[in-house]
Every structure is written in structure tokens, then in C-alpha cells.
Amino acid sequence: MASPKSAAGSADVAADRRRQILQAAVEVFAERGFHRTRVADIARRAGVAYGLIYHYFDSKDAVLQAVFESNWSVFLKVVRDLRADPSRTALERMGAVVDLFLDALEVAPAIMQVVIQEVSRSDRFVEEEKLEAFREGFELVAGVIADGQAKGEIRSDVDPLVSAHAFLGALETVCMGITLLPRAAEGHSPSVKPTVRALLLDGLRPRASEDMQGASE
């Protein structure tokens, strides 16, 4: 029987190897696209035997699913924490969502490219259980908007869930444009975050009539 210490060591090795494969997959998917990538390409980039990929993943689709789950779960946790943070206004929380997307694009462009191009726009992720992760993200952002409406921090004449779809959809489009046309975006990077913040957050601010009504109450 393996000792608890050796079992833990084996689990760590397995986790490291899995991360190694996923990192390699992200790089190859970003370079070649999902359809043109072969499992052998991932194995070669990871520096592992072809058969080892199938020890951890059932298929190439399962590798892509794991890339999505490991990264989207980070987004969900951040937004959950933002919604529970009483020290920020709703607009500040929505601004943090903008920063999260754009900072991720700067720090990990390959991951953002794969999640946007190969996952969110793919018909492979239409099954109910896979859509649930996307649904939760939209509902969390809608919750931040609804909370802000209840406090008078966000305009009251917009539907929270529709606003969440528009907000995240706009962020996705900005990120996709930058990943697909990086040269066109060269020289504009300092203005990306303030521009996107201004466009998206100003649309959520209470209207002047709401501000006046709040001041009179």
C-alpha cells in the first residue's frame, strides 16, 4: 500500500502534468485553431508521449473543455466576490469586470483567444450542462446590475439580464478584435481600458432625471 506521502506526491505530479498539457493545448489552439490541431501537436508541444494525453483526457474536445472550465471558473469566482463586496458601488464593480477582461487579455492573450474563438462561438458547447457555466456568468453580472438599481446606482429603465448580455458581449467583441487584429490595435493599448470603461459604464449610470428625483426625496 502506498503511503499517504507518496500518494500525495503522485497526485501533485499528475496535476502538474495535466497543467502542462493544458498550457500546451492553449498555445497550439491559439496558433492553429481547434480544428487544425491534432492531439499529436499538443503532445509535441507539451513534450509528452502521444498516449499520455489520453491518460488525462478522453479526446481533443475534452482538452478544450478543460481549458474553458479552468479559466471560466476564475471569472465566476471574481464576479461572485465582487457582488459580495459591500465596499464598492455597482458601477465600481462593473468597472472591475471590464478590468478583469482587459487585464486577462494583456496577461494571457492566448487563453482569451481560445476561450472566445474556440469556445464561446462554438457549437460544441450547446449542451445544457456546458451552457450552465455561461449562464451563471451572465446571471452574476445581472445580479450586480440589479443590486445597483435597487440602490439607485444604476439606471432603472434597463433590464439587468439583457444589460449583462450586452455588457459581456461588448467586452467579448473588443477582446476578439484585439486578438484577431493585434497590429491594428498597436499604439492604442493605453486608451483601450479608459475607452471601454467610458462607453460601457456611462450607459449604466442613472439618467439626469433619476439623479434629480433622488436628490428631491
Can you offer a commentary on this structure?
This protein is an all-alpha fold and 217 residues long. It has eleven helices and no strands. It is elongated. 24% of the residues are buried.
Q: Brief description of this entry?
A:
The chain is mainly alpha-helical and 217 residues long. Helix content is 78%, strand content 0%.
How many DSSP-defined strands? 0
Separate helix tally: 11
Distance between the termini: 72 Å
As a whole number of angstroms, the C-alpha radius of gyration is: 21 Å
Structural class: mainly alpha
Percent in strands: under 5%
Shape: elongated
String of helices and strands? HHHHHHHHHHH
Helix content: over 70%
Instruction: State the low-pLDDT regions, or none.
Output: none
Largest sheet: none
Set down the secondary structure blueprint.
Blueprint: H1 4-32, H2 39-46, H3 50-56, H4 60-83, H5 90-107, H6 109-120, H7 128-150, H8 160-180, H9 182-185, H10 189-202, H11 208-216
Helix pairs in contact: 1-2, 1-4, 1-6, 2-3, 4-5, 4-6, 4-7, 5-6, 5-7, 5-8, 5-10, 6-8, 7-8
Keyword list:
217 residues; mainly alpha; elongated
